TrEMBL record:
Residues 1-21 form the signal peptide. The keyword Hydrolase applies. It comes from Neisseria lisongii. Coiled coil: none annotated. Pfam families: Lactamase_B_2. This is MBL fold metallo-hydrolase. InterPro entries: Metallo-B-lactamas, RibonucZ/Hydroxyglut_hydro, UPF0173_UPF0282_UlaG_hydrolase. Keywords: Hydrolase, Signal.
Amino acid sequence: MKLNKLLFGMALTSMATSAMAFDYQHIRNATAKIHYGNNTFLVDPYLAPKGSYEGFAGTPNSQLRNPLIEMKQPAEEVIKGIDAVIVTHTHDDHWDKKAQEVLPKNIPIFVQNAGDAQLIRSQGFKDVRVMGANTDFNGVKLTRIKGGQHGSDEMYANPQLAELLGDAMGFVMQGKDEKSLYIVGDTVWNEAVEQAVNQFKPDVIVMNTGYAQINGSTDGIIMGKDDVAKMAKFRPQAEIVTVHMDAVNHGAVTSDEMRQFVKQQQLEKQVAVPKEGQVVSFK
Protein backbone atom coordinates (compact mmCIF):
# COMPACT_ATOMS: atom_id res chain seq x y z
CA MET A 1 0.00 0.00 0.00
CA LYS A 2 1.73 3.18 -1.19
CA LEU A 3 1.60 6.43 0.76
CA ASN A 4 -0.18 8.46 -1.93
CA LYS A 5 -2.15 5.73 -3.62
CA LEU A 6 -4.40 3.08 -2.08
CA LEU A 7 -5.23 0.35 -4.57
CA PHE A 8 -8.52 -1.39 -3.98
CA GLY A 9 -10.29 -4.26 -5.66
CA MET A 10 -7.87 -7.09 -4.90
CA ALA A 11 -10.58 -9.43 -3.73
CA LEU A 12 -13.37 -7.90 -5.76
CA THR A 13 -11.83 -7.46 -9.20
CA SER A 14 -13.64 -10.42 -10.73
CA MET A 15 -17.00 -8.87 -9.85
CA ALA A 16 -16.49 -5.82 -12.08
CA THR A 17 -13.74 -6.55 -14.55
CA SER A 18 -15.29 -4.38 -17.26
CA ALA A 19 -15.60 -1.28 -15.09
CA MET A 20 -13.21 1.60 -15.67
CA ALA A 21 -11.19 3.03 -12.81
CA PHE A 22 -12.05 6.16 -10.89
CA ASP A 23 -10.13 8.00 -8.19
CA TYR A 24 -11.34 9.31 -4.84
CA GLN A 25 -9.00 11.80 -3.18
CA HIS A 26 -9.60 12.51 0.49
CA ILE A 27 -8.89 16.20 1.05
CA ARG A 28 -10.02 16.65 4.69
CA ASN A 29 -13.15 15.99 6.75
CA ALA A 30 -15.87 15.13 4.18
CA THR A 31 -14.17 17.09 1.40
CA ALA A 32 -13.22 14.96 -1.58
CA LYS A 33 -11.98 15.36 -5.12
CA ILE A 34 -13.47 12.64 -7.29
CA HIS A 35 -12.18 11.92 -10.81
CA TYR A 36 -15.08 10.08 -12.41
CA GLY A 37 -16.16 9.63 -16.02
CA ASN A 38 -13.80 12.28 -17.45
CA ASN A 39 -15.05 14.77 -14.86
CA THR A 40 -13.61 16.04 -11.61
CA PHE A 41 -16.08 16.72 -8.81
CA LEU A 42 -15.33 18.56 -5.57
CA VAL A 43 -17.58 17.37 -2.73
CA ASP A 44 -18.40 19.34 0.43
CA PRO A 45 -15.60 21.92 0.24
CA TYR A 46 -14.26 22.82 3.71
CA LEU A 47 -11.17 24.71 2.64
CA ALA A 48 -10.08 27.15 5.35
CA PRO A 49 -6.70 26.89 7.06
CA LYS A 50 -6.44 25.21 10.45
CA GLY A 51 -8.04 27.17 13.29
CA SER A 52 -9.99 29.64 11.14
CA TYR A 53 -13.35 29.24 12.88
CA GLU A 54 -14.70 28.96 16.40
CA GLY A 55 -15.73 25.49 17.56
CA PHE A 56 -19.36 24.49 17.10
CA ALA A 57 -21.37 25.88 20.02
CA GLY A 58 -23.26 23.34 22.10
CA THR A 59 -20.93 20.49 21.20
CA PRO A 60 -18.03 18.73 22.97
CA ASN A 61 -14.65 20.48 22.87
CA SER A 62 -16.19 23.67 21.53
CA GLN A 63 -13.22 25.61 22.94
CA LEU A 64 -11.14 24.21 20.08
CA ARG A 65 -10.97 26.09 16.79
CA ASN A 66 -11.94 24.45 13.50
CA PRO A 67 -10.61 22.97 11.34
CA LEU A 68 -8.44 21.06 13.80
CA ILE A 69 -5.98 19.98 11.10
CA GLU A 70 -4.52 21.38 7.88
CA MET A 71 -5.06 20.14 4.35
CA LYS A 72 -2.07 18.85 2.44
CA GLN A 73 -2.61 21.52 -0.23
CA PRO A 74 -3.88 25.11 -0.05
CA ALA A 75 -7.43 25.73 -1.18
CA GLU A 76 -6.30 27.27 -4.46
CA GLU A 77 -4.56 24.02 -5.38
CA VAL A 78 -7.48 21.85 -4.26
CA ILE A 79 -9.92 23.56 -6.62
CA LYS A 80 -7.68 23.36 -9.69
CA GLY A 81 -9.18 21.32 -12.51
CA ILE A 82 -12.61 20.78 -11.01
CA ASP A 83 -15.66 20.67 -13.29
CA ALA A 84 -18.45 20.80 -10.69
CA VAL A 85 -19.10 21.00 -6.95
CA ILE A 86 -21.52 18.87 -4.92
CA VAL A 87 -22.69 20.27 -1.58
CA THR A 88 -24.58 17.68 0.48
CA HIS A 89 -25.73 20.39 2.92
CA THR A 90 -24.62 23.83 3.98
CA HIS A 91 -23.27 23.27 7.50
CA ASP A 92 -20.02 25.17 7.89
CA ASP A 93 -17.82 22.06 7.77
CA HIS A 94 -19.24 21.11 4.36
CA TRP A 95 -19.54 24.53 2.74
CA ASP A 96 -17.36 27.15 4.41
CA LYS A 97 -16.52 30.79 3.85
CA LYS A 98 -13.19 29.95 2.26
CA ALA A 99 -14.89 27.79 -0.37
CA GLN A 100 -17.29 30.63 -1.08
CA GLU A 101 -14.35 32.97 -1.58
CA VAL A 102 -12.12 30.88 -3.82
CA LEU A 103 -14.53 28.93 -6.02
CA PRO A 104 -15.42 30.50 -9.39
CA LYS A 105 -18.87 32.03 -9.29
CA ASN A 106 -19.85 30.28 -12.52
CA ILE A 107 -18.86 26.75 -11.43
CA PRO A 108 -21.82 24.30 -11.56
CA ILE A 109 -22.90 23.45 -7.99
CA PHE A 110 -25.29 20.61 -7.17
CA VAL A 111 -27.37 20.83 -3.97
CA GLN A 112 -30.11 18.87 -2.22
CA ASN A 113 -33.05 21.27 -2.33
CA ALA A 114 -34.36 24.69 -3.27
CA GLY A 115 -33.47 26.18 0.11
CA ASP A 116 -29.79 25.36 -0.23
CA ALA A 117 -29.88 26.52 -3.84
CA GLN A 118 -31.32 29.88 -2.80
CA LEU A 119 -28.67 30.32 -0.11
CA ILE A 120 -25.76 29.55 -2.43
CA ARG A 121 -27.16 31.77 -5.17
CA SER A 122 -27.35 34.58 -2.61
CA GLN A 123 -23.60 34.10 -2.12
CA GLY A 124 -23.04 35.03 -5.75
CA PHE A 125 -22.96 31.66 -7.51
CA LYS A 126 -24.64 31.65 -10.91
CA ASP A 127 -25.08 27.95 -11.80
CA VAL A 128 -26.71 26.18 -8.86
CA ARG A 129 -28.67 23.03 -9.66
CA VAL A 130 -30.90 20.88 -7.46
CA MET A 131 -29.94 17.23 -7.78
CA GLY A 132 -32.78 14.83 -8.53
CA ALA A 133 -32.89 11.31 -9.94
CA ASN A 134 -30.38 10.56 -12.71
CA THR A 135 -29.40 14.21 -13.00
CA ASP A 136 -26.92 14.28 -15.88
CA PHE A 137 -23.57 16.02 -15.84
CA ASN A 138 -21.40 15.30 -18.88
CA GLY A 139 -22.51 11.68 -19.02
CA VAL A 140 -22.38 11.07 -15.25
CA LYS A 141 -25.70 10.32 -13.54
CA LEU A 142 -26.19 11.88 -10.12
CA THR A 143 -29.07 10.75 -7.89
CA ARG A 144 -30.01 12.41 -4.62
CA ILE A 145 -30.67 10.05 -1.69
CA LYS A 146 -33.38 11.56 0.46
CA GLY A 147 -34.30 10.60 3.99
CA GLY A 148 -30.90 10.88 5.61
CA GLN A 149 -31.10 11.79 9.28
CA HIS A 150 -28.40 14.03 10.78
CA GLY A 151 -29.03 12.75 14.33
CA SER A 152 -31.18 10.43 16.41
CA ASP A 153 -34.99 10.22 16.51
CA GLU A 154 -34.87 11.86 19.94
CA MET A 155 -32.91 14.80 18.57
CA TYR A 156 -35.36 15.34 15.72
CA ALA A 157 -38.25 15.26 18.19
CA ASN A 158 -36.92 18.59 19.50
CA PRO A 159 -38.10 21.22 16.97
CA GLN A 160 -35.26 23.66 17.63
CA LEU A 161 -32.62 20.96 17.42
CA ALA A 162 -34.23 19.45 14.34
CA GLU A 163 -34.02 22.82 12.61
CA LEU A 164 -30.37 23.16 13.56
CA LEU A 165 -29.48 19.67 12.31
CA GLY A 166 -31.56 20.13 9.16
CA ASP A 167 -31.47 17.97 6.06
CA ALA A 168 -28.35 16.42 4.56
CA MET A 169 -28.46 14.38 1.38
CA GLY A 170 -26.44 11.43 0.24
CA PHE A 171 -25.98 10.78 -3.46
CA VAL A 172 -25.14 8.07 -5.94
CA MET A 173 -22.80 8.59 -8.89
CA GLN A 174 -23.10 6.30 -11.90
CA GLY A 175 -21.31 6.17 -15.24
CA LYS A 176 -21.58 4.06 -18.33
CA ASP A 177 -18.46 2.03 -17.56
CA GLU A 178 -17.39 3.13 -14.08
CA LYS A 179 -18.13 1.43 -10.81
CA SER A 180 -21.07 3.01 -8.97
CA LEU A 181 -20.34 5.25 -5.99
CA TYR A 182 -22.57 6.02 -3.00
CA ILE A 183 -21.64 8.98 -0.83
CA VAL A 184 -23.71 8.34 2.29
CA GLY A 185 -23.33 11.85 3.74
CA ASP A 186 -24.07 13.17 7.22
CA THR A 187 -26.61 10.69 8.53
CA VAL A 188 -27.04 8.00 11.12
CA TRP A 189 -27.87 4.49 9.96
CA ASN A 190 -31.53 4.39 8.98
CA GLU A 191 -33.97 2.90 6.53
CA ALA A 192 -33.08 5.41 3.81
CA VAL A 193 -29.47 4.20 3.83
CA GLU A 194 -30.53 0.58 3.60
CA GLN A 195 -32.96 1.36 0.78
CA ALA A 196 -30.25 3.18 -1.17
CA VAL A 197 -27.83 0.28 -0.84
CA ASN A 198 -30.50 -2.25 -1.81
CA GLN A 199 -31.68 -0.20 -4.78
CA PHE A 200 -28.35 0.87 -6.28
CA LYS A 201 -26.09 -1.96 -5.08
CA PRO A 202 -23.10 0.41 -5.09
CA ASP A 203 -19.63 -0.91 -5.81
CA VAL A 204 -18.05 1.79 -3.62
CA ILE A 205 -19.49 3.36 -0.46
CA VAL A 206 -18.06 6.44 1.28
CA MET A 207 -19.17 6.82 4.89
CA ASN A 208 -18.89 9.82 7.24
CA THR A 209 -17.84 8.09 10.44
CA GLY A 210 -16.49 10.60 12.97
CA TYR A 211 -19.46 10.02 15.31
CA ALA A 212 -19.84 13.74 15.89
CA GLN A 213 -21.88 14.62 18.97
CA ILE A 214 -23.83 17.41 20.63
CA ASN A 215 -23.87 18.27 24.32
CA GLY A 216 -26.35 16.32 26.42
CA SER A 217 -26.37 13.19 24.27
CA THR A 218 -24.06 10.24 23.76
CA ASP A 219 -25.66 9.47 20.39
CA GLY A 220 -23.83 10.48 17.25
CA ILE A 221 -25.21 12.86 14.65
CA ILE A 222 -23.30 10.91 11.99
CA MET A 223 -22.10 7.31 11.81
CA GLY A 224 -19.27 5.71 13.75
CA LYS A 225 -17.17 2.57 13.98
CA ASP A 226 -20.00 0.10 14.48
CA ASP A 227 -21.72 1.39 11.35
CA VAL A 228 -18.64 0.53 9.29
CA ALA A 229 -18.78 -3.07 10.46
CA LYS A 230 -22.52 -3.09 9.82
CA MET A 231 -22.08 -1.80 6.27
CA ALA A 232 -19.35 -4.34 5.56
CA LYS A 233 -21.83 -7.10 6.39
CA PHE A 234 -24.83 -5.40 4.77
CA ARG A 235 -23.04 -4.88 1.46
CA PRO A 236 -20.06 -7.29 1.47
CA GLN A 237 -19.51 -6.75 -2.28
CA ALA A 238 -18.75 -3.06 -1.75
CA GLU A 239 -15.43 -1.36 -1.20
CA ILE A 240 -15.78 1.11 1.67
CA VAL A 241 -14.03 4.40 2.41
CA THR A 242 -14.41 6.10 5.81
CA VAL A 243 -13.93 9.86 6.22
CA HIS A 244 -15.15 12.89 8.25
CA MET A 245 -12.75 12.38 11.15
CA ASP A 246 -10.04 14.45 12.88
CA ALA A 247 -11.06 17.87 11.51
CA VAL A 248 -13.93 19.15 13.68
CA ASN A 249 -14.16 19.69 17.44
CA HIS A 250 -17.20 17.48 18.12
CA GLY A 251 -15.94 14.31 16.48
CA ALA A 252 -15.68 11.33 18.86
CA VAL A 253 -13.84 8.90 16.56
CA THR A 254 -10.39 9.61 15.11
CA SER A 255 -9.01 8.11 11.94
CA ASP A 256 -6.34 6.27 13.96
CA GLU A 257 -9.07 4.71 16.09
CA MET A 258 -10.93 3.75 12.93
CA ARG A 259 -7.83 2.12 11.45
CA GLN A 260 -7.37 0.11 14.63
CA PHE A 261 -11.03 -0.93 14.54
CA VAL A 262 -10.80 -1.98 10.89
CA LYS A 263 -7.76 -4.09 11.70
CA GLN A 264 -9.44 -5.69 14.72
CA GLN A 265 -12.47 -6.55 12.62
CA GLN A 266 -10.22 -7.94 9.85
CA LEU A 267 -11.75 -5.57 7.30
CA GLU A 268 -8.53 -4.22 5.76
CA LYS A 269 -9.29 -5.70 2.33
CA GLN A 270 -12.71 -4.04 2.23
CA VAL A 271 -12.32 -0.77 4.16
CA ALA A 272 -9.90 2.12 3.58
CA VAL A 273 -9.26 4.97 6.02
CA PRO A 274 -7.26 7.42 3.89
CA LYS A 275 -5.10 10.20 5.24
CA GLU A 276 -5.47 13.80 4.06
CA GLY A 277 -4.39 14.09 0.43
CA GLN A 278 -4.36 10.36 -0.25
CA VAL A 279 -6.02 8.87 -3.31
CA VAL A 280 -8.02 5.67 -3.35
CA SER A 281 -8.13 4.15 -6.84
CA PHE A 282 -10.94 1.77 -7.71
CA LYS A 283 -9.91 -0.53 -10.55
